[in-house]
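BUG: 3D viewer hangs when loading the predicted structure for this chain

Environment: internal workstation, default settings.
Expected: structure renders.
Actual: progress bar stalls at 90%.

Input used:
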Amino acid sequence: MRFLILGATGTSGILLVRKTLELYPDATIIIYARSPDKVPEDLKDNAAVSIIKGTLEDLDTAETAVQGVDVVLSALGPLVKWYGTNHPSGNPIATFYAHLIDLMNKYNVKRFLFLSTASSKDPNDRHSVKFATLVDGVKLFARNAYTDIVAMGETARTKGGNIDWTMVRVPVLTNANTEAVAAGYIGDEQVGVTLSRRAFAAFMLGEVEKREWIQKAPLISDS
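Structure tokens produced before the viewer hung:
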């Protein structure tokens, strides 16, 4: 197996790389990162890991990264701060995903799992006061992040017809030391409003083989 991992320099992304190495010890992992220096030294030194430096705008470099890949895993998410610099306008992640899906189709890469949030709605969702409050807060204080998340989901649904994508929607992420996870839809009483980053990584890697959520958008939380 050959994995391309995006967003691998953040806390969730690093855990995603580590879980991939744990479950697929014979796999090759390609990390595509704007700042390779943020990758931990032990991962840089791992013979199974290769790092390609590139940004969301470096489409030629991204094309090189996609070639020969079996699965794309993405922990990319909007930059959300309640103060100071916020996520840029123009939906940069969704724009990149549109190009990425084109590249995946070009090189016959079929599996794509990516991070999202409750801001991206699904027809199976039902009303939930808790989640509505969370989403309203993002809309109000981090509008650019909200619009990019929404656009990411729309991009997968409109362009990903030939791709086995799974949009893994998460609530509030924590650093709890647990991989236990519940998966469902907003308002179905199976899912809550917190999720450990370790559980996110475990769910992503488990879904690679289980394939229970093809072209679906589960909301996952601590169980």
